[in-house]
Write a structure and sequence with these properties.
By secondary structure, the chain is of the alpha+beta class. 55% of the residues lie in helices and 12% in strands. Helix 9 (142-187) packs across helix 10 (196-213).
Length: 591
């Protein structure tokens, strides 16, 4: 009996049946090959996939993969993806070209809410951006940006779908979106848009398929998977660089490219291939609906990440960094992305989630010229002027704690929230302005507010250091007392002034003026001070020294020392004009 003979498209010759079964199992020989073995086939050549002896071998993963890869078919999924990307790019371009206010407003809203970045997904609730960002492209050059990605999407998508099937392509896209979106949300400072994350995911999958399937890939196809696909990548990269030169006007990657997005998308595509088993490798593949459920789960994970992080500000802001607000006594713990993006808005210092952010948290201190100026400032008018409208008071949110006040206004559709803490003439301010209700952002900024630390103003700290170097200097003593007074540390300021009142070199007059101003601003500080310290100053002060005489008489009367006030007035035989009002007030109050 003649030996078994195998006929393939390439050659024909004798074959060992055991060796043939192993080659079929490994995918080296396809089921369409013909075998002549008289006990099984009689006088004819019969296809291997019609012989019961090879049924089990043909169901092995490598055999099924090789048969799937070489079978005729279409790549509808990759084609649909390319069409979807280009249609969205044309729609974006059409909106931009319309030029009407309505079209521009719609385009700005789509870009603002559809671009993938931490601030939008976590603080503004744009959880859908993990999907929509891959269909949006660079403003002003949407078609160029889409066309630059199209070769990767079309070619790599076609190769992945031919090898891994329709559901395999969906899983690769979902894996790329999952890993890429999570990486961008957690670690990127740049807003990300465009289909390049998916393109790199497909390219990573094309490489991974070559490594996973190895010898199961027919020789004619091996140059298209694994490292063999790098040739196509280099070609398409050259095309992309040329298009980018046309778009941004220079050679090389533009500064706005998200390399993290590209790398994580590629990793997602690799993982989607290396983890799990696609239907083309299974003898009894699960139903298509089961694969859709798995793909849907992969797509839901990044969409749920933003809302979940929003519920935990401490986790959402990782990593945190202690930041000192420049020129103030304020410090707070901020997410690194905020700490690295200081801004100035409405004349206030602040920190933003990114350079593109329009809604920073404002953290600053204001030093007022006088205590009267603090009380007289119209904050509604202040915010209305800054925002170019009329401020209307809203119900105030809960204050941070003791000593804090909270306020809210509405100005032409924008909502202003401000928390203030006053220490003397120093006002610490924390504020934010939002265009739309954003509960997650409010919660997050409130969390930042709770971590705010208020130390002594830098001017007071500097003056303490100077005084420590020369504590016997009356200039340093008085300067420190003034800074303590400005900072609202009245008792400590008065303690610094008392020794100066005993001097005879002129500093006693400066100390007396400062002390009377302190008692005027904070009456409790002078409530228990004996009035005798003031009488020598009232007896010696010239009539032109209104900083001592007027507040001095007022303080004596307020303390009930009417007799001392009247006696001090008697030193003038003829009352100077400057003191007439004080004398009238003393007489009216004491009688």
């Amino acid at each position: 009996m003649p030996p078994p003979t195998l006929r393939t498209a390439q050659d024909e010759g004798p074959v060992d049946l055991l060796e043939l079964e192993e080659r079929v199992r490994e995918g080296e020989v396809l089921g369409e090959a013909l075998l002549h073995h008289a006990p099984w086939t009689g006088q004819d050549f019969v296809r291997l996939d019609r012989l019961p002896a090879f049924a089990e071998a043909l169901q092995a993963p490598s055999a099924r993969f090789a048969a799937h890869l070489t079978a005729p078919g279409h790549s509808r999924g990759a084609a649909l993806l390319g069409v979807l990307v280009m249609v969205s790019a044309f729609a974006q371009t059409a909106l931009s070209a319309m030029g009407t206010p309505e079209a521009q407003d719609l385009l700005e809203r789509v870009l603002r809410e559809g671009v993938l970045h931490w601030e939008g997904a976590v603080l503004d609730g744009s959880w859908w951006s993990v999907w929509t960002a891959h269909l949006l492209h660079a403003p002003g050059a949407a078609l160029v940006h889409a066309v630059a990605n199209l070769p990767f999407l079309a070619y790599c998508g076609y190769r992945v779908e031919r090898a891994w099937g329709h559901t395999g392509l969906l899983r690769v896209l979902a894996g790329s979106l999952l890993v890429g979106s999570v990486a961008v949300l957690l670690f990127s400072d740049l807003p990300v848009l465009g289909s390049s994350i998916l393109a790199f995911g497909l390219f990573g999958a094309q490489i991974a398929i070559g490594f996973r399937m190895g010898e199961a890939i027919p020789p004619s196809q091996r140059g298209r998977y694994g490292w063999g696909s790098l040739r196509a990548f280099v070609l398409f990269l050259a095309l992309t660089m040329a298009l980018e030169f046309w778009m941004v006007g220079h050679r090389g990657p533009s500064s706005g490219v998200s390399h993290l997005g590209h790398a994580s998308g590629l990793l997602g595509g690799v993982l989607a291939v290396m983890v799990g088993t696609p239907p083309v490798l299974r003898p009894s593949p699960p139903r298509f609906t089961a694969h859709l459920a798995i793909t849907g789960l992969l797509l839901l994970i990044p969409a749920a990440l933003g809302p979940l992080l929003a519920l935990s500000p401490g986790l959402a802001g990782q990593p945190w960094r202690e930041v000192q607000v420049e020129g103030t006594g304020l410090s707070l713990s901020l997410p690194a992305r905020f700490a690295e993006t200081p801004v100035r808005q409405f004349g206030l210092q602040g920190f933003a989630a990114s350079r593109a952010s329009q809604h920073p948290i404002l953290v600053d201190q204001a030093l007022f010229s006088s205590y009267e100026a603090v009380e007289e400032l119209d904050w509604e008018a202040w915010w209305g002027q800054r925002l170019g409208g009329v401020a209307t008071s809203l119900p105030a949110p809960p204050a941070r704690g003791a000593g804090w006040t909270a306020h809210a206004w509405e100005v032409d559709g924008e909502v202003v929230v401000e928390h203030r803490f006053r220490q003397g003439l120093v006002l610490s301010r924390v504020a934010w302005v939002l265009e739309v209700p954003a509960p997650a952002r409010e919660r997050f900024y409130r969390h930042l507010l709770e971590g705010l630390q208020i130390a002594e103003p830098p001017a007071l700290v500097a003056e303490r250091e100077l005084y420590g170097r020369n504590p016997d200097s009356p200039r340093r003593q008085h300067a420190l007392a003034r800074e303590l007074f400005i900072a609202g540390l009245f008792a400590e300021a008065d303690t610094m002034l008392v020794p100066l009142l005993q001097r005879q070199d002129g500093w006693q007059w400066n100390a007396a003026r400062t002390r009377l101003r302190l008692f005027e601003v904070d009456p409790p500080t002078g409530a228990e001070v004996p009035v005798g310290w003031l009488l020598p100053f009232l007896e010696e002060a010239p009539a032109s020294d209104r900083e001592i005489l007027e507040p001095g008489f007022a303080w004596l009367v307020a303390r009930g020392a009417c007799a001392e006030a009247a006696q001090a007035l008697q030193r003038w035989e003829e009352l100077p004009e400057a003191l007439e009002s004080s004398a009238e007030w003393v007489q009216a109050t004491c009688h």
